[in-house]
Amino acid sequence: MQLSTIIINHNQCRQLRQALAALKQATLHLDAEVIVVDNASEDLSLRMLKAEFPEVQVIAHDKPQDFAKAANSALDNARGSYVLVLNPSVIVGDETLDKLHEFMELHTDTGGLSVRMLDAEGNFIEGSNKNMPPEWVKFFQLSGLSRLFSKSRLFSKHYQAGWIEEFENTEMDVLNNCFMMLRKSVLNEIGVFDERFKSYGCDIDLSYRIRLAGFKNYYYAKTFVIQQGQVQINKLSWQYIKNFYGAMFTFAAKYLFRLPELRLKTLPGWSSPAYELKQ
């Protein structure tokens, strides 16, 4: 099988229906499967899936799972040579996946790929080719973690003018978690998402591990997808602050202090990850 698409859904029935309809059209020329992880939706998502998309594999959780854990539950079942982790708010074009598949087949050093994203009005979404939050960039500079990305554009003035590269295929550091096309053989080598990262940071960690293993991440600009409006997040809530900023310290502890080697199983939240980090 060529492609497995994984979508994590929580009460996004309308957007999920549109995303799946577009996927069906986009995979006409690919041997593909779709796996939807439903995170305890209370809307009509599960009923809609059963009635309108019976071919879709559904993993239904009774309780909401963190992004990494939900994605990993689908990755265990994915059979494709490539895996697309797709946000239900994203609509792919008819030729998008064919072009991305062709690119990754030709560039065998590619571990992951993100794509040019437009909003519903056709405006370029800057996060398409620079997905490191500014708070993380500042934290990396202050903590010394920027040395992990020694060849990175994240900390350069050139990077801040990312709009220049909207139409250029370029190497990138951090894949956009709304659209991550991953080579399954690379995941088999480096492991899946680290479940110690809750709602944030697991995409940054996975992107870094892809590069650490000697593969490249790319921003592909020769096609595009449409991102519909996303669920608004209350950035003043304690849950957001704890997960967002806690992910920074988890990343710092992991790579500055090599916690994967310490195996501190007695500390809550620091049990062994879902993979073994190869140093």
Automatic annotation (TrEMBL):
Pfam families assigned to the protein according to its UniProt record, in alphabetical order: Glycos_transf_2
Residue span, Glycosyltransferase 2-like domain: 4-151
Its name, as the record gives it, is GT2 family glycosyltransferase
On the tree of life, the source organism's domain of life is Bacteria
Family annotation (InterPro entries) = Glyco_trans_2-like (IPR001173), Nucleotide-diphossugar_trans (IPR029044)
Q: Which CDD domains match?
A: GT_2_like_c (cd04186)
Species for this entry: Mucilaginibacter terrae
